[in-house]
Amino acid sequence: MRVFVPVLIAAAAILGLQSCKSKGSEAVVAAPTQGTLAPAAPAAAEGLTGKVLERIDASPYCYLRLKTAKGEVWAAVPEAKIEKGAEVTLATPMLMNNFESKTLKRTFPEIYFGNLAPAGGVPAAPAAAAPAPGANPHAQVANTAATIEVGKVDKASGADARTVAEIWAQKASLKGKTVTVRGKVVRYSAGVMGKNWMHLQDGSGDAGKGTNDITVTSMDGAAKGDVVTARGTVATDKDFGAGYTYPMIIEDAKVQKK
Could you give the CA distance from residue 131 to residue 94 in angstroms, rounded to a whole number? Predict the structure, then answer.
């Protein structure tokens, strides 16, 4: 999945969606739109650090103009309380070239999408990086899940039980219907847009096509590496804005450990 959110999705734990309205300024209610995007190489592994010179509030993102050691750059992070003058670090930032926001009526020649590293901490790969608009969330999950050994997970029981591959194959007919799937949590983000987001894999499907992984949202918690059974409603072509788009997702699931 994707979009777990999560730059499904970036994609950290994505920071809790707190208000980022600044004093004396009017928030610009606008999510990034998919314009002319040209993904470039990721920034240095140590992250991107700079002083906040300017902020534009555009839920669910904050756009930040940063003063860095290499000059001024623009960055976008999941909305959070960030004061002008604060020094911030983006963990695992991804550079996008010629990113166009039609709502903001501007094009950023270069902008970094990522998640804020903990204050005073060393930038580390977040639990779920915020995917940059236009990014392939399936590809991002494939990289993230590489350290998780999935193996073969037994199929759930019941009339509505499906494997991950079966849900993908039947997504058109399953739209709006309830399904039950059992899988291993290969990625997890808590408290994103008021829900917990997880990617499940069960050993079925094609990793090259992204049909080996499914995104699930739930009020129930889990942990990376858990084998869980999730029962929720299938939604297709779901667009949460800011590049979080999902060809298929299971929403509002009840999740129980195996």
Answer: 9
CA distance linking residue 14 with residue 7, whole number of Å:
9
Instruction: Determine how β-strand 195-201 pairs with β-strand 106-116.
Output: unpaired
What's the CA gap between 22 and 85, in Å, rounded? Answer: 12
9-36: per-residue pLDDT in tens?
Answer: 333 333 333 334 433 333 332 334 443 3
* Gap between the Cα atoms of 3 and 57, Å rounded: 21
**Which token pair is 49?**
């650090």
Cα–Cα distance measured from residue 255 to residue 226, given in angstroms and rounded to the nearest whole number: 11
Backbone angles phi, psi at 233, to 5 degrees: -100, 135
Contact (Cβ atoms closer than 8 angstroms) between residue 63 and residue 56? yes
pTM of the model: 0.51
Per-residue pLDDT tens digits for 93-104: 778 888 876 667
Class of domain 143-257 (CATH, top level): mainly beta
| Residue matched to tokens 């409603």 | 233
Kindly tell me the burial class for residue 165, based on how many C-beta atoms sit within 10 Å of its own C-beta (0-12, 13-18, 19 or more): middle
